Amino acid sequence: MAKGGKKSSSLDEVLDGLYRCNKCGFCQTACKVYKSDLNESYAARGRVQLIRGVAEGKIQVDEGFKNAINSCLLCQECAVACPSGVKPHELVLAARRYLKQTEGLPIDKKLILGTLGNPFRRKLAFSTARILREKVANRIGGFDDFKGIDIKGMPIDKTSFIDQVPEISSVQGAKEKVGFFVGCFINHSLSRTGHSIVKVLNANDIDVVVPKKQVCCGTPQNAYGDFESAKKNARKNIEIYEEFDAVITGCSSCGAMLKNEYSHLFADEPDYLPEVEAFGRKVFDFSEYITKKIDLDTRIYKVFNHKVTYHDGCHMSRGLKITKEPRKILKSIPRIEYVELREADRCCGAAGLFQSYFYEIAKDISRQKVKNIEDTGAEIVVTGCPACVHRIQGSLRLAGRDQKVVHLADLLADVYP
What is the number of domains present in the chain? Predict the structure, then answer.
């Protein structure tokens, strides 16, 4: 219970963080949403003060408050910039949870999050989107994009990756058996990346298991305050992957959720928390596992005469703290010309549902990413986030650029014999 006998809310749990903000404004220099819109409510400082006002009962929840809270990218750049150690993205998550507790989810978000969280409904949604695109969008002019999202160029697989592969891909004399957490985008849109991850791991004497009953990691639900649904999926995944030596992800958003956020979800269950934390310690991003657990024999690589740059996804660089590993892998490839990308860890503008709800700001953020890529002169952009693959590739195509965007696993699989 909160002070005064009031029923505790998610905002009561983050009061210390709200009071720690000294209003210095360093977060403004980092916030890409603020730089695009120049609205104080859309910077971390403004959001924190709005949340504090609601927590103290000084202001009421209205559409302006909801827009300020939902406009956050959750990119965590403000947390890095804050000299007081405030983590505004965590305060925003608490505010979204508060909105869910007090007002429920809007019908559109409820439908989207419910679909993403349910394997059958998600598969049906992707199949329907593919059919509609083939029958409608590809036959009628003016459907190249939807609110800046490249719906025409985005790949959608006819068969999900999980349905394409056997549950166990084994090799003789395997050194370890890992569980592959596929994630929604790789499963339904980038199955090639899934195959690439299995190929590289098998080639390095690793048995790979793709559990058929795995469910959404819970990132979308967690991002919009639906803790209950996120916890339900988390519990299932922890049980499914219990037997493996390691859990490999090819999606930094999934990886950050599995490794870090599950412990936050179950902070109120101290008896179960040790099991959750043990699970988190087994989670590895593909690039991290490759560099820390496998001694790659680069002598067998094919020559790769291309100029390449690398984009750090927000959840990869600031969520998982992984930046050196992908670059180490890239630079080990013979004849590759690697060039560093200016503001490599700058958000690409996707940020889940943000790109459809705040599409003008998202397009502005994406335009800067496209310009930075163009300045490198690179032919290929590599990243470890499937959502970033889609957003950057789509933004490049819509801008008339011809650079190709690939997942790190795909490039690595291509240089294997």
Answer: 3
Provide the 8-state DSSP code for 149: B
Residues 273 and 390 in one domain: no
Same domain, 276 and 166: yes
In a 13 Å sphere around the CA of 170, the CA atoms on its Cβ side amount to 6
Beta strands at 337-338 and 404-407: parallel, antiparallel or unpaired: unpaired
**281 and 262 Cβ atoms separated by less than 8 Å:** no
Q: From CA 183, how far away is CA 161, in angstroms rounded?
A: 10
- Per-residue pLDDT tens over the stretch 174-207: 999 999 999 999 999 999 999 999 999 999 999 9
Characterize the bridge pairing of strands 168-169 and 206-209.
Answer: antiparallel
Do both 174 and 79 map to the same domain?
no
Residues 6 or more apart whose Cβ sits within 8 Å of residue 151: 129, 133, 137, 143, 144, 145
Beta bridge partners of 308: 338, 380
Q: Which of 276, 292, 308 is the last residue of a domain?
A: 292
User: Quick check: 286 and 300 in contact, CB under 8 A?
Assistant: no
Domain assignment present for 288: yes
Are the beta carbons of 201 and 248 closer than 8 angstroms?
A: yes
Tokens encoding 390: 């889609």
Note whether 195 and 284 are same-domain residues.
yes
Contacts of 288 (CB under 8 A, 6+ apart): 320, 322, 325
Within this chain, do residues 330 and 374 fall inside the same structural domain, yes or no?
yes
Reference 264, options 222, 214, 320, 315; nearest CA is 222
Kindly state whether residues 310 and 287 are assigned to the same domain: no
363 in the same domain as 260: no
Position 114 in a domain:
no
pLDDT (tens digit per residue) in 214-238: 999 999 999 999 999 999 999 999 9
| DSSP conformation letters of 36-98 | HH--GGGSHHHHHHHHHHHHTTSS---HHHHHHHHT-----HHHHH-TT---HHHHHHHHHHH
Residue ranges making up the domain that contains 86 = 3-103
DSSP element (H, E) containing 381: strand 380-383
Per-residue tokens: 143 = 């459907």
Residue 143 — pLDDT band, cuts 50, 70, 90?
low
Residue 243 lies in a domain: yes
pLDDT at 139 over 90: no
- The alpha carbon of residue 192 and the mean position of all alpha carbons in its chain are separated, in whole angstroms, by 18
Interhelix angle 107-117/227-240, nearest 10 degrees? 0
